[in-house]
Amino acid sequence: MSRWSRYRDIGVAMTRLLLRVAEERFRVAGTFTISRGSRTEIRVVTVELHDGAFCGRGECVPYQRYGETVEGVIETIRSLAEDLSNGLDRVGLLSRLPAGAARNALDCAFWDLEAKRSGLAVWKLAGLPPPARLSTAYTLSLGEPGSMRDAAVQNAHRPLLKIKLGSDRDAERIEAIRSGAPHSTLIVDANEGWTIDQYLDLAPHLVSMGVALVEQPLPAGADEVLREIVRPLPICADESCHDRHSLKDLVGKYDAVNIKLDKTGGLTEALELKREALNAGFDLMVGCMLGTSLAMAPAFLVAQGARYVDLDAPLLLAEDREIPVQYNGSVMEPPTGSLWG
Q1: What pLDDT score was predicted for residue 69?
Q2: How many beta carbons lie within 10 A of that of residue 95, not counting itself?
């Protein structure tokens, strides 16, 4: 039996398309741990749009933190068959589905299909400059201070390390990592794992350890207090930032925003969020869920010019797509059109 769980013939813009959607699993290299839990594999949803001559692909990673499941996302995508048969396109998709994983996979598949039909790369279709190689952060998952120091030593050659925190003994962890990687720039991500008292206690220590940025220290629903405190180092919104509509509530609380396509609901909205965030004076991080190279390819375009790039997910996997993004250490090469776009 095909790995594709179900498909339907649908018509889009006068062309009969074959919509295919499936869950795929990829092994993590070891165990990846954040404050909310650990995983040894990832479950992604892959969408293909076929028109008989060309195929557009997109990937999303449903995230339980946002009330998403693999099964629910697949069902949401399947439910659009009739809308697609009546001419739903990438622009219409913005109002048909909310920001989130399901819209991301479809939006990116539409972009890929448009590129293949036109013979033009997505960056040209989107009016962007040619993409250049990027240097990405490398993530050290949450663990005991000693094991995190060992991981830092192994990756001390990397210019930017992202450290997962959000638990007891975080001061020990950051000291251990700094001793293991004395020359790397450090950013820390608490994944909503601290209280305001914990953050205020840790912040001076983070500054003394040379941390450049702290990501989402408080739960998204309890971050209003950030308006009332002096921020001794820049704070980046992740779980608090989804699409353009998020920005108005972030002014005065955060200094930067983390753009992820699974939150924005695709490349289309991510590019608009990037534009409006820059206009509002935010610094940019472009990040990702723990996905494959197929998810990194569209994010690579958004990450051009961002202060912080965090697109290292394929480096954390034991297996990837057949045609992966190429990494030379922490340097990402532009994805090839045979992968996406």
Answers
A1: 97
A2: 8
83-110 residue pLDDT tens? 777 778 899 999 999 999 999 999 999 9
Give me the active site residues, please.
164, 260
- How confident is the model over 131-168, as pLDDT tens digits? 999 999 999 999 999 999 999 999 999 999 999 998 88
Instruction: Quickly count: other Cβ atoms within 10 Å of residue 233's Cβ.
Output: 16
Determine how β-strand 327-328 pairs with β-strand 331-332: antiparallel
Quick: pLDDT tens for 205-255: 999 999 999 999 999 999 999 999 998 899 999 999 999 999 999 999 999
Q: Would you put residue 99 in left (φ > 0), alpha (ψ -120 to 50) or beta?
A: beta
* DSSP state, residue 316: G
Q: How far, CA to CA in Å, does 123 sit from each of 196, 243, 267, 299?
A: 41, 20, 11, 11
Separation between Cα atoms, residue 187 and residue 2, nearest integer Å: 42
**Contacts for 35-43: CB closer than 8 Å, 24+ residues apart:** 35/142, 35/164, 35/165, 35/166, 35/167, 35/190, 35/191, 35/192, 35/193, 36/65, 36/191, 36/193, 38/141, 39/290, 42/290, 42/291, 42/292, 42/317, 43/70
Q: Which residue has the tokens 């569209």?
A: 298
Whole-angstrom Cα distance, residue 254 to residue 215? 9
Neighbours of 3 (CB within 10 A): 9
Supply 289's token pair. 């869920």
Q: Are 335 and 311 within 8 A, CB to CB?
A: no
Q: How many CB atoms lie within 10 A of CB 146?
A: 12
Q: Residue 339 carries which side chain, given as an amino acid letter?
A: L
Q: Are 107 and 133 in contact (CB under 8 A)?
A: no
Separation CA 332–CA 137 (nearest Å): 10
Q: The whole model's pTM is what?
A: 0.93
pLDDT band at 276 (very low <50, low <70, confident <90, very high): very high
